[in-house]
Design goal:
Layout lengths: L4 E2 L5 E5 L12 E7 L7 E9 L12 E6 L2 E6 L14 E5 L5 E6 L9 E9 L1
Antiparallel strand pairs: 1-2, 2-9, 3-8, 4-7, 4-9, 5-6, 5-8
Length: about 130
């Protein structure tokens, strides 16, 4: 799933990618989540990326995450220290202005293109 869904109270929303993975032909990036318009209210969001066990554990073969807001990269993280065998990396809290375009991308590597990955997003309207 890669859409914004309102929770029953109307003051929160969520979006999740589900578990995805590449194959030997996978590109350098895989889009996990895309919301073309976050709505008429500002939001505080929590982005929670997750990764399956790495196929390759060399330092230059780790998956990463990139977050773009209105086509501007605001988070780009591809560090090896915490991605070897964790199922989840650090979450990110961000302010998102109303009517923003939000895109979350998995940064792929040739050594781990079949590694599972995904992202969950929870937004709180302000």
């Amino acid at each position: 799933m890669s859409a914004q869904t309102l929770l029953s109270g109307g003051d929160k929303w969520f979006s999740y990618s589900g578990v995805t993975f590449g194959d030997v032909s996978a590109p350098a990036t895989i889009q996990l989540n895309f919301i073309p318009n976050t709505g008429l209210r500002d939001s505080m969001i929590v982005i929670q990326p997750f990764f399956g066990a790495a196929v390759s554990t060399s330092n230059n073969e780790q998956l990463g995450i990139e977050v773009k807001l209105d086509d501007v990269t605001i988070i780009k993280n591809q560090t090896a220290s915490h991605l070897h065998d964790n199922n989840q990396t650090d979450s990110f809290n961000l302010f998102i202005p109303r009517q923003s375009k939000l895109e979350i991308i998995s940064l792929n590597t040739s050594g781990n293109n079949t590694q599972t990955r995904g992202v969950n997003v929870l937004g709180y309207y302000l």
